Amino acid sequence: MATPENTIDPMDIARRIRPSMTKLYVTYFRIADQSDLTGPQLSIMARLHQNGPSRISQVAQEEGIRMPTASNALHQLEQRDLVRRIREETDRRGVRVELTALGEKELKRVGEERTRFLAEMIATLDDENLRKADELADVINTLAETYNTAQISNKSE
């Protein structure tokens, strides 16, 4: 099926940026790997910070991971006193997890550290590309907010 020349093709954009996004992702996490927290652990902690106490099944679903994976990650965080398990008031069998004060502090510290590392990467751009990156930030944030793991799961089934 032919597309008009003025139509923007998402597949073309994906082909052009995917290799660079992968390279930037790897570079960013190598630089930011000063912390002994993994990306998935930080993601779980950020989700708990945003959503408050959550059941492990909810964490797994929102992170797009299996229950055993979420349980293992949370166990590792619990061993470091970054999260704690709390019993449900209405259902004593139910358990939720929440960030501890230390977890909140560590999430903030690592977040600020990684923001500085990313800022250093962005600062290498010339003025014109820096302006473009400023505009692109809103697009990236919109994409991240609207595209969720449920859409990924549905496509793989």
Structure overview:
68% of the residues lie in helices and 8% in strands. It has helices at residues 10-31, 39-51, 56-63, 67-79, 101-122, 127-146, 149-156; strands spanning 54-55, 83-87, 95-99. The protein has seven helices and three strands. A three-stranded antiparallel beta sheet has the order 1-3-2. It has a single domain, classed as Orthogonal Bundle (Arc Repressor Mutant, subunit A). It is mostly helical and 157 residues long. Residues 10-145 form the HTH marR-type domain. InterPro entries: HTH_MarR-typ, Tscrpt_reg_MarR-type_CS, WH-like_DNA-bd_sf, WH_DNA-bd_sf.
Radius of gyration, in angstroms, nearest whole number: 19 Å
The strand count comes to: 3
The main sheet comes to: 3 strands, antiparallel
Quaternary structure state of the chains depicted: single chain
Helix content: 55-70%
CATH-derived topology: Arc Repressor Mutant, subunit A
- The low-pLDDT segments are 149-153
InterPro entries: HTH_MarR-typ, Tscrpt_reg_MarR-type_CS, WH-like_DNA-bd_sf, WH_DNA-bd_sf
Protein name: MarR family transcriptional regulator
Pfam families: MarR
Domain HTH marR-type: 10-145
